[in-house]
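Need tokens for this chain, all 426 residues.
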Amino acid sequence: MSIDQASAQDLQAQLADLEKQYNAFEAANLSLDLTRGKPNSAQLDLSNSMDGILNSAYVTRAGEDCRNYGGLDGLAEAKELFSKVLGVSPQETLIGGNASLTLMFQTLAFAHLFGVRGADSAWIKEGVVKFLCPVPGYDRHFSVCEELGIEMIPVAMTDQGPDMDQVEALVKADSAIKGIWCVPRFSNPTGIVYSDDVVDRIAQLGKIAGAHFRVMWDNAYAVHALHREAPELANIMDAARRYGTEDSVIIFGSTSKITFAGAGLAFMGTSEENLKYFKKHLGMVTIGPDKVNQLRHVKFFGDFDGLMTHMDKHAELLKPRFDAVLQHLEDGLKGSDMGGWTVPEGGYFISFDCLPGLAKEIIALAAAVGVKLTPAGATFPYGLDPEDKNIRLAPSFPALSDINKTMEVFVVCVKLASIRLKLQAE
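Here are the structure tokens for all 426 residues:
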């Protein structure tokens, strides 16, 4: 029954029952965590055979000894393999260390301080620098902007991707807007896949934006589907080529949730002209990446089909966890008008929207009985959710039994907060 249709007497009875359940959770001394989208141990075990896979064969097919210095943009073999994940050519690909976040930070820092086409193009020389941030979104993107002093402008997310009418209007009106963050496939945290039309319109932003505008295309979940029939993502670089905006697009990815989160590979794809300037500055930071790790990743996967077969194994481990979260939400909250949620077909998160003004309270109620959830506001710039309603759920890391217990608590906390709010209003 909808909360709005229930009588005050019914709500009081429900509240008394919920408080009993909540007190039982409190007495159970729980210690559960649903905060971050980390791979679980079984997922990490899928890549254990990488250890020793080179068997002391450290020479690449070009005759390079990958134990030595050099190779700033990575091994040719690695660029061939992971360019397919990015959707660009090997010549437009750079392979880095274990974190795509590092490449993203470096991209913005170099553009901000040194320019994208020499010192005269440095963003910081123009004074105030702004970035568009689709919300709810990824907190670490927002942290990068905050660290560099880049002003963030929230834009609404729809079930097709960012609200492009809003994005285009903002970009046309303000040349200080230098870019937009995007997680285009299985977006963090909503799990939606950008529509073909949205991808096409984003590819055209470089024609209407101010100078040196950049689309930060963080395709972190490019191959992280829960099943092979999940929606595909249109190739943004192909679209950019049609409009002559290749320089405006920078694509990122990694194996952090494919092999070892702390010992994977990061990669970026962009125009060869962009790479030339990026490598000029990168050469001041490093003499070269860990090419041994690159070679063992290539040996481990063999080819792109091998990588996709590996991702099927991840899906087998992740799907039951997502199903458990969604089942608890369906069983406990469907038809109640106490909240809504996304049903992703890939990625690492489920986005839950409670009644406005209750996210902080729900998270505090859960914390008081030993259940950690992502802080309210984390999915918005500066940690400020104007409606205080979005909660990111991350089911990948805990054991299935812990997910079930966590979701029992979560549903009770949502109901408690919602019914108390309704009774206060009457």
